[in-house]
Design brief:
The chain is of the alpha/beta class. It has a single domain, classed as Rossmann fold (3-Layer(aba) Sandwich), CATH 3.40.50. The chain has helices spanning 18-31, 50-53, 67-76, 113-123, 153-161, 176-193, 200-203, 206-227, 229-233; strands spanning 38-42, 59-64, 81-84, 98-104, 124-135, 166-174, 240-243, 251-257. The chain has an 8-stranded mixed sheet with strand order 3-2-1-4-5-8-6-7. It is globular and about 50 Å long.
């Protein structure tokens, strides 16, 4: 059974997903200099970053709501603790437990984002760091019905400031190869959404919009790859980088300290 239920779970195994997969993988590469000790990953998905971060920490705990993915990961990584749970809250975790928390491309899916941040603060040890990434709303190409909300750089920082006094606001951006793909994707999405003359994507309930969104998103990725395979296949993880300008980055990448 495929574990890639939606286009939200970009796969290293699907060629047309490559630019998205490399972009998501890069967050873990960027986190390598910050993780240590007891690590918690919130929203581990299919375990994209486990091999990157696991060798760098003394213990790894990962949480995800997807039971099927958790079952697969438990078999693959028997020395890692996996928890199947909807969050927030992090009800199975005591206060002051982890030296580091990573949570990449998760907060946009959380209904109660305030509690999500509050719980990250609670489970961190004093002096511990959390690394959080999410798509930059400024660079979104359409409404994503899998997202409860998206954030501009200032809005995410304002939310973090409620609980964390030390916030290092960065971004994840791409080089000319990445941005060439982004511009082609942008143009292709524009050609699709021009038929939405009533703006249905903005008012249709998210649950209903997900099916057509996933179908069109998958077709669009394949169309771009078929038109110019190198535009998709030539992108590697090193084509992404940490930017000091989150407002002009594809993703927001914030490092906060308790």
């Amino acid at each position: 059974m495929s574990t890639h239920f939606t286009t939200e779970i970009a796969s290293a195994e699907i060629p047309s997903d490559n630019p998205v997969h490399q972009r998501l993988l890069y967050a873990y590469i960027a986190a390598k200099d910050f993780v240590k000790g007891d690590l918690l990953e919130i929203g581990c998905g299919d375990g994209r970053g486990v091999d990157v971060l696991h060798p760098l920490v003394s213990a790894y705990t990962a949480i995800d709501k997807n039971d099927i993915l958790i079952d697969i990961l438990e078999k693959k990584y028997p020395d890692i603790k996996f928890i199947s749970q909807f969050i927030p809250p992090l009800s199975m975790i005591p206060d002051n437990t982890f030296d580091t928390v990573v949570s990449f491309q998760v907060i946009e899916h959380i209904e109660n984002d305030d509690l999500y941040v509050k719980e990250i603060y609670r489970v961190l040890k004093p002096g511990g760091k959390a690394l959080i990434s999410t798509v930059n709303k400024k660079y979104s190409l359409s409404r994503n019905p899998w997202h409860v909300r998206e954030y501009f750089a200032a809005g995410l920082k304002q939310l973090m400031t409620k609980y964390f006094s030390t916030i290092d606001a960065k971004g994840i951006h791409g080089n000319e190869k990445v941005m060439a793909y982004y511009e082609e994707n942008k143009a292709s999405v524009k050609r699709i959404t021009k038929w939405d003359i009533f703006g249905m994507q903005w008012w249709m309930p998210r649950a209903i919009l997900r099916v057509p969104y996933d179908i069109l998103n998958r077709l669009n990725r394949k169309k771009i790859m078929n038109a110019n395979n190198s535009l998709v296949s030539d992108i590697v993880v090193d084509d992404y980088f940490v930017s000091q300008n989150p407002e002009e980055s594809l993703d927001l990448f914030y490092i906060v300290t308790k």
